[in-house]
Design a protein that fits this description.
The structure is a single chain. This protein has a domain of 37 residues. Helices cover 65% and strands 0% of the residues. The protein has two helices and no strands. The N and C termini lie far apart (71 Å).
Length: 68
């Protein structure tokens, strides 16, 4: 049992080292651009989430007139 565990761990580590950390088919500039776009999209989503929590995303229902 322990030998199978060690063999699996060895194969997993070997696979990680053989593939490397580079993105296949992309230049460093393209990878950096993708990261920037992802971070910007995440920040926009974060702002939308904050607006939803504080109810800034909906028009106000406060009105001096009674509306049915």
């Amino acid at each position: 049992m322990r030998q199978m565990y060690l063999l699996g761990l060895f194969l997993m580590v070997l696979g990680m080292f053989m593939t490397g950390c580079k993105a296949p088919g992309l230049t460093k500039k393209q990878v950096d651009m993708r990261h920037r776009e992802t971070i910007q999209q995440n920040m926009l989503q974060f702002q939308d989430d904050i607006d939803s929590v504080f109810l800034f995303d909906r028009p106000s229902r406060m009105s001096p007139m009674y509306v049915r």
